[in-house]
Write a structure and sequence with these properties.
Elements (H helix, E strand, L loop, with lengths): L18 H17 L10 H29 L4 E5 L3 E2 L4 H8 L2 H10 L4 H5 L6 E2 L3 H15 L4 E6 L4 E8 L2 E7 L10 E12 L2 E6 L5 E6 L2 E13 L6 E10 L6 H4 L4 H4 L1 H7 L12 H30 L5 H4 E6 L6 H12 L4 H11 E4 L10 E3 H7 L1 H21 L4 H7 L2 E2 L5 E3 H7 L3 E4 L2 H9 L3 H6 L4 E3 L6 H7 L2 H11 L20 H26 L8 E6 L8 H17 L8 E6 L7 H18 L8 E6 L4 H10 L2 E4 L11 H7 L3 E4 L5 H8 L5 E2 L4 H10 L4 H5 L2 H12 L11 H9 L9 H16 L2 H12 L6 H13 L18
Helix pairs in contact: 1-2, 1-4, 3-20, 6-34, 10-12, 12-13, 12-15, 14-15, 22-25, 22-33, 23-24, 23-30, 30-31
GO molecular function: glycogen phosphorylase activity; pyridoxal phosphate binding
Cofactor: pyridoxal 5'-phosphate
Family: Belongs to the glycogen phosphorylase family.
């Protein structure tokens, strides 16, 4: 396909709009504004217009939704139930418009009504019902399941407040409630008739029934009601719509009138407050006993309600439970829903009278488990005492599962006490705790990692002995992202360029991106590509100026690290290199330095003090560098607060360099690496998570790999964590650590970062010091490549053209075929991805 002149702004010709459809949509929006919002156009706010437009769109989605439901029920299709404590769905308005094919019509209709779509989109709050990659992955998977026309339900919690709103005050993270429901939510439909009882506490009695079978009767001490709220999730082209069902908690009786009438007004609503606390906030601080109990209550609450719901649906369609595994596939997204193993067993045995062996066979065949971490501290464990108090019947079931499981372990390795202790559901070494990762593993027929390296390491590390006992259960499903949001919506300029070079079919089949490879060396196309990137960088520069008052040169190299703040993700390594570069520029100001903008964004867990200290260091370093006249525009450091999906949609298309620098062997997969690569950023990273597969797809010459590999990390840790040897050999690193330690960046509190300096010298668990020199040299290689201009652009284009395999459609198709045993729509089958040219 011919390339336009490089002097032209790249635009595809737009097809003419259907005037009748346009008039119908305008009428529908005004009707919603009047009848649903209760406002006249002259008095309506932007938020009123947004809500009216969203409701008009929702009407059109609901029709498709009902048709999808009817078709799947009529066909008796197997359903997928995706259980996740997090769903980071972000804004839905333009996403749904795009997938329904109504974006141009609504844009024109709102323009005719005197309001702009881009402004109305900002009225929608981000539904921050997730912490980061885990929740965003769940959202991408829900969209891909709808796109592939897989009948599915997502199940989670309707948190009153999402992940906290992050505000940076004098460089420190401050947490505030995220009131995403403050103006209501036009996308959800409450289902007041869908209510389930969820029980806690109490005692268990055992009896023998008329057939001589022992039965357990749970007499709970507390009951909480789960109320359903449904949000439609639209697949591409609007062909299929699935539901995301979120549960809200309430007490069966909201007010104790007898207590209220005694004058104890707070006591009269205490049980309501206790119930509502379950859905009040995502990830309560679990440092306290009360916080740990609330987390466990949250997990059981949504698991119990979800399983009751799907069993009721199955019984309505099938009339019996023997076929459950043939008609329902339940995916546990991380360890949070692990209680599904015991809850499904409890329901089958206690409520439906099944024998243990039959119930266990159905449970294992129905459930599958996705592991997202190799960090032992992230594999949840709960004190046995907490289980005894909150979920006594489930603890009994866990003991019974463990008894049978340890019998197999003993048969496998007779007399091996250490092996039995390793695979046991009860960790006896840490004060008797229930291992939830083990429970999910034992109770599932398939356990998958989320990148090839991660799945292999699962077999060698956290689940080594379980893999030996149950060989063949672990499989790999490398993560993916939905290109509809992370290319089409986030980067319309690049999307238009892709359509012009790859054809309109690229919108349906991302593998067609490989046609862009033929233009990677074309100077005219390279200029088009650079023009798109520059416009995106100008937009981000404007946002940084508005938020932080920092003037950014859009022609500089935008070096981006956006992710949760955690020691293993090594923002600290990036900061140290920034400090070293700062001193190098000051030492040789006459050199032709590549101008850089270091862009950080991400939240630290509220209780993670060290991560919050790293945020403070980033901001203190930024304050020094950005105000140093000797540096001018050669180096800027930016921390953008309150990272969320909408902010990511601005940062990612503007990024030139993607920082994926986790300690090798510690990142399960990553999806930010995929989003940035798809949008034309080169990756600097370790051989960790999906970086390995990205290297294999984009070509080793188009990615910058540095640092130790996973086995080398293990070997160095075995020798000790002291890093004085590597610091002694690295003048750049030694100088940077001295600056941090001596208060150069914290003159108001010289000892503020002493703990960081001490860890870098003597407790280098995450190999920040050990990998520094390799990282610093890789960054200087990035400088050289950036200076080469066309070579950088060619590598960026090749990254885009070779990223198609990382579509979440591919990932979900693999789940469907290998784990869930459900068909996908043939129309969604992609063409083979062309192998990267070496």
């Amino acid at each position: 396909m011919p390339i336009q002149s490089t002097t032209d702004d790249f635009r595809l010709a737009k097809p003419p709009l259907d005037e009748l459809a346009l008039a119908e949509i305008k009428t529908a929006i005004v009707a919603k504004l009047t009848l649903a919002i209760g406002k006249e156009a002259a008095l309506a706010t932007k938020h009123d217009w947004y809500k009216a437009a969203a409701l008009a769109l929702r009407d059109r989605i609901v029709h498709r939704w009902l048709m999808s439901e009817k078709d799947s029920y009529d066909a008796g299709r197997k359903r997928v139930y995706y259980l996740s404590l997090e769903f980071l769905i972000g804004r839905l308005f333009t996403d749904a418009l795009n997938n329904m094919g109504l974006l141009p019509l609504f844009d024109a209709a709102l323009g005719d009504l005197g309001v702009g779509l881009s402004e109305l989109r900002k009225c929608e709050p981000d539904a921050a019902l997730g912490n980061g990659g885990l929740g965003r992955l769940a959202a991408c998977f829900m969209e891909s399941m709808a796109t592939l026309e897989i009948p599915a339900f997502g199940y989670g919690i309707r948190y009153d407040f999402g992940l906290f709103r992050q505000i940076i005050t004098q460089g420190w993270q401050q947490e505030y409630p995220d009131e995403w429901l403050g103006f209501g939510n036009p996308w959800e439909l409450q289902r007041p008739e869908v209510v389930y009882q969820v029980h806690f506490g109490g005692s268990v009695e055992h009896s023998v029934d008329s057939r001589g079978q022992e039965r357990a009767i749970w007499y709970p001490g507390e009951t909480v009601q789960a109320v359903a709220y449904d949000t439609p999730i639209v697949g591409w082209r609007g062909k299929h719509v699935n539901a995301l069902r979120l549960w809200s908690a309430r007490a069966p009786d909201p007010l104790r009138i007898d207590v209220f009438n005694t004058g104890d007004y707070l006591g009269a609503t205490a049980h309501e407050a206790r119930a509502e606390a379950i859905c009040k906030f995502l990830y309560p601080n679990d440092e306290s006993a009360a916080g740990r109990e609330l987390r466990l209550r949250q997990e059981y609450f949504f698991v119990s309600a979800s399983l009751q719901d799907l069993i009721k649906r199955h019984l309505h369609a099938e009339g019996q439970l023997r076929s459950l595994a043939k008609k329902a596939a339940v995916q546990l997204n991380d360890t949070h829903p692990s209680l599904a193993v015991t809850e499904l067993m409890r329901i089958l045995i206690d409520h439906h009278g099944m024998q243990w062996d039959d119930a266990w066979e159905i449970t294992r065949a129905t459930l599958s488990y996705t592991n997202h971490t190799l960090l032992p501290e992230a594999l949840e464990t709960w004190p046995v005492e907490l289980f005894e108090r909150c979920l006594p019947r489930h603890l009994e079931i866990i003991y019974r599962i463990n008894e049978l499981h340890l019998g197999l372990a003993n048969a496998c390795c007779p007399g091996d006490v250490d092996f039995r202790a390793s695979v046991s559901l009860i960790d006896e070494k840490a004060g008797r705790r229930v291992r939830m990762g083990h429970l999910a593993f034992i109770g599932s027929h398939r356990i998958n990692g989320v990148s090839a390296m991660h799945s292999d390491l699962m077999k060698e590390t956290v689940f080594h002995d379980l893999h030996h006992l149950y060989p063949g259960r672990i499989t790999n499903k490398t993560n993916g992202i939905t290109f509809r949001r992370w290319l089409m919506l986030a980067n319309p300029g690049l999307t238009e360029l892709a359509r012009a070079t790859c054809g309109d079919e690229v919108l349906d089949d991302p593998s067609r991106l490989d046609r862009m490879e033929d233009y990677a060396g074309d100077s005219a196309f390279q200029q088009q590509f650079r023009n798109v990137k520059h416009r995106n960088k100008v937009a981000l520069s404007r946002l940084i100026g508005e938020r932080l008052g920092i003037k950014i040169d859009a022609s500089a190299l935008f070096d981006v690290q956006i992710k949760r703040i955690h020691e293993y993700k090594r923002q600290l390594l990036n900061v140290l290199e920034t400090i070293a570069l700062y001193y190098a520029i000051k030492d040789e100001p006459q050199r032709d330095w590549v101008p850089r903008v270091k862009i950080f964004s991400g939240k630290a867990a509220a209780s993670y003090r060290y991560a919050k200290l790293i945020i403070k260091l980033i901001n203190d370093v930024a304050e020094t560098i950005n105000n140093d006249p000797d540096i001018a525009d050669r180096l800027k450091v930016v921390f953008l607060a309150d990272y969320n999906v909408s902010l990511a949609e601005v940062i990612i298309p503007a990024a030139d360099l993607s920082e994926q620098i986790s300690t090798a062997g510690m990142e399960a997969s990553g999806t930010g690496n995929m989003k940035l690569g798809l949008n034309g950023a080169l990756t600097i990273g370790t051989l960790d998570g999906a970086n390995i597969e990205m290297r294999d797809h984009v070509g080793a010459e188009n990615i910058a790999i540095f640092g130790m590999e996973a086995l080398e990390v293990v070997a160095r840790r075995a020798q000790g964590l002291d890093a004085t040897d590597v610091i002694g050999r690295s003048p750049h690193l030694a100088r940077a650590i001295r600056a941090v330690d001596s208060g150069v960046f914290s003159p108001d509190d010289v000892g503020r970062f002493a703990s960081i300096a001490h860890a870098l010298r003597h407790l280098d668990h995450y190999m920040v010091s050990a990998d520094f020199d390799s990282y610093y040299e890789a960054q200087r290689g990035i400088d050289a490549r950036w200076s080469a201009g066309p070579a950088w652009t060619r590598a960026a284009i090749l990254n885009v053209s070779r990223m198609a395999w990382f579509s979440s459609d591919r990932t979900i198709r693999e789940y469907a075929e290998d784990i869930w045993d459900v068909p996908t729509t043939p129309a969604a089958q992609p063409a083979p991805v062309r192998q990267a040219k070496r």
